[in-house]
């Protein structure tokens, strides 16, 4: 409880701030709606209101602000509106909707469950490819001096480059040579998760110190024994740390990869929300993306805790 | 076909040269340390050029490096204007505001234990989220110009910087704090003379992570709406026109700017944390 108290306080403070901020953010829309409903609003034409400051409008119309937290297409939807949107586009759409899983047998293409599934598939596939190649390259770098010297500086430099800029091009090029569906997004995810894993894994495989390496030499251990019994186990904490960074990067890659091609996914949902001014839809997609990221990092954290505990390395 | 075979031969030869440089008599010299990655990079470019030309790959799929270099040289004014819009206005202003405010918040958070225990888990959580997703919302709030890009960058760099600075401010040993205590130093004296200097390696770690994030944020935010210039705008419209040489030219600019930005921070770090073991020669 000692740990949870401050966290809950901070979260409650954020939510409270959000509700307060929604009032001046949405004041124009709120007053327009109130005027239509027949409430007296202080500058009584929309033109004067759009020129007035947000805060002066708030203080001139303290009675007419009741609708601040339920405006349609608000500039800042309030938390409960976002939660309602998430509920409507997941549970409600699937259970009660005409195209939902209950009535049609497959996930509705209007529900966030479907879109999360699209994004999640590309993320996980890309992550597995990226992490797999990353680990292989790291082993190569640790055992081949040539590879270390040629590739490692570039791997480090590539971390300072905004690789995401490549995303639209990769998508279009892969589509034009006939690779469609999940693969182009997975390539971007793989690319983003690749370098953190390489760098972390190289650090991990090099973490055994001289004493330990000398001990193995006195045991007359072969190179492969040295790898399986010392270097690989020693690299595990580093590997898991970089896997967590990698999977978060993978998700960003998949979302950005969905922007140029509108074929479903959370990124497509955000972009269409921004085109049509459906702010609740953007926020809902953002929240679901956050939940996905947290879940995936938590799963890797759980595997990490289990693995390290069995290896006797848990802290 | 001959070009492809030539590419293969050059690849094998360059690899053999690198293997000799890094395992042979020169292996510990400074020259080998610089030459090997350069040779590798040049080989990749040459092989790319030869394979693209040899197999007649269409320019709309992968332009050869020479064409990209030509486009880069011909469009310098456009590329410069894009870079000023995206990096000069969007990324740098957001970077300064975001890192600066995170630094100040970190000092406040560190002062009050309650805040630290409450904000740090939230900050750690936020640092792992796909914050780029907030771009469409901020573009809607702050308009299409650089202000919205700057806002995206602020949000993106804030949490990594906060988490790193808070971790750094705690990186003093009990001995050091006791020493300050025996000197009768107050909170502010301890902060300025001991804890802030001790936090600098962490602060610079955060600043370095934030350089890449700032560029990513500014470029991706332009995919959601921008004036008719900017690197993200140019990339997304050039992809639409299948002018991939222009896209690659923008990526070259992004790579150069990213490395230069990172290098600048690393240089400042070397000056500020000269006392740290990782900086000593």
Automatic annotation (TrEMBL), chain A:
The chain crosses the membrane at residues 118-142, 154-177, 238-261, 281-303. It is found in: Cell membrane. Keywords: Cell membrane, Membrane, Transmembrane, Transmembrane helix, Transport. Residues 112-304 form the ABC transmembrane type-1 domain. It is a multi-pass membrane protein. Pfam families: BPD_transp_1. Its main location: membrane. The keyword Membrane applies. Belongs to the binding-protein-dependent transport system permease family. PANTHER family: ABC TRANSPORTER PERMEASE PROTEIN HI_0355-RELATED (PTHR30151:SF20), ALKANE SULFONATE ABC TRANSPORTER-RELATED, MEMBRANE SUBUNIT (PTHR30151). This is ABC transporter permease. It comes from Marivivens donghaensis.
Automatic annotation (TrEMBL), chain B:
Keywords: Cell membrane, Membrane, Transmembrane, Transmembrane helix, Transport. Coiled coil: none annotated. InterPro entries: MetI-like, MetI-like_sf. It is found in: Cell membrane. The chain crosses the membrane at residues 29-48, 55-72, 92-110, 122-144, 150-169, 202-226, 246-268. It is a multi-pass membrane protein. CDD domains: TM_PBP2. Pfam families: BPD_transp_1 (PF00528). Residues 103-272 form the ABC transmembrane type-1 domain. This is ABC transporter permease.
């Amino acid at each position: 409880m000692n740990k949870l108290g401050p966290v809950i306080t901070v979260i409650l403070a954020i939510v409270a701030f959000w509700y307060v901020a929604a009032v001046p953010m949405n004041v124009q829309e709120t007053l327009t709606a109130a005027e239509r409903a027949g409430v007296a609003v202080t500058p009584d034409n929309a033109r004067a209101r759009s020129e007035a400051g947000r805060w002066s409008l708030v203080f001139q119309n303290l009675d007419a602000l009741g609708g601040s937290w339920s405006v349609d297409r608000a500039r800042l939807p309030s938390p409960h509106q976002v939660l309602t949107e998430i509920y409507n586009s997941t549970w409600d759409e699937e259970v009660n909707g005409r195209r939902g899983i209950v009535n049609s047998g497959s996930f509705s293409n209007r529900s966030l469950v479907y879109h999360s599934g699209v994004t999640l598939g590309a993320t996980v596939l890309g992550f597995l490819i990226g992490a797999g190649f990353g680990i292989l390259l790291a082993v190569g770098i640790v055992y081949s001096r040539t590879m270390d010297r040629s590739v490692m500086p570039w791997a480090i430099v590539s971390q300072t480059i905004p690789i995401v800029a490549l995303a639209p091009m990769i998508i279009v090029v892969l589509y034009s040579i006939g690779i469609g569906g999940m693969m182009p997004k997975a390539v971007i995810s793989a690319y983003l998760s690749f370098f953190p894993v390489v760098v972390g894994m190289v650090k991990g495989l090099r973490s055994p110190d001289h004493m330990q390496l000398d001990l193995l030499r006195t045991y007359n251990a072969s190179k492969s024994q040295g790898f399986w019994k010392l270097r690989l186990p020693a690299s595990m904490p580093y590997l898991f740390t970089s896997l967590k960074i990698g999977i978060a990067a993978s998700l960003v890659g998949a979302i950005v990869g969905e922007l140029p091609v509108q074929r479903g996914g959370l990124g497509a949902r955000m972009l269409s929300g921004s085109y049509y001014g459906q702010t609740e839809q953007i926020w809902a997609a953002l929240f679901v993306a956050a939940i996905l990221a947290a879940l995936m990092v938590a799963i890797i954290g759980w595997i990490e805790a289990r693995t390290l505990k069995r290896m006797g390395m848990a802290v | 076909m001959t070009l492809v075979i030539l590419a293969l031969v050059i690849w094998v030869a360059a690899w053999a040269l690198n293997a000799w440089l890094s395992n042979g008599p020169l292996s510990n010299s400074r020259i080998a340390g610089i030459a090997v990655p350069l040779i590798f990079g040049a080989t990749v470019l040459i092989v790319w050029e030869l394979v693209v030309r040899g197999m007649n790959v269409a320019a709309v799929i992968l332009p050869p490096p020479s064409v990209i270099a030509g486009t880069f040289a011909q469009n310098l004014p456009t590329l410069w204007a894009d870079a000023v819009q995206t990096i000069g206005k969007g990324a740098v202003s957001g970077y300064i505001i975001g890192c600066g405010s995170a630094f100040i918040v970190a000092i406040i958070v560190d002062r009050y234990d309650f805040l630290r225990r409450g904000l740090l888990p939230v900050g750690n959580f936020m640092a792992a989220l796909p914050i780029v997703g907030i771009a469409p919302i901020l573009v809607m709030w702050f308009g299409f110009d650089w202000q919205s890009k700057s806002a995206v960058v602020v949000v993106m760099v804030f949490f990594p910087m906060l988490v790193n600075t808070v971790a750094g401010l705690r990186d003093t040993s009990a001995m050091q704090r006791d020493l300050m205590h025996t000197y009768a130093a107050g909170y502010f004296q301890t902060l300025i003379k001991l804890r802030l200097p001790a936090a600098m390696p962490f602060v610079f770690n955060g600043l370095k992570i934030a350089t890449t994030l700032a560029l990513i944020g500014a470029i991706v935010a332009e995919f959601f709406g921008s004036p008719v210039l900017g690197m993200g705008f140019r990339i997304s419209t050039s992809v639409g026109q299948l002018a991939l040489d222009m896209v690659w030219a923008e990526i070259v600019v992004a790579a150069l700017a990213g490395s230069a930005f990172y290098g600048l921070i690393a240089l400042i770090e070397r000056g500020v944390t000269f006392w740290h073991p990782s900086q000593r020669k």
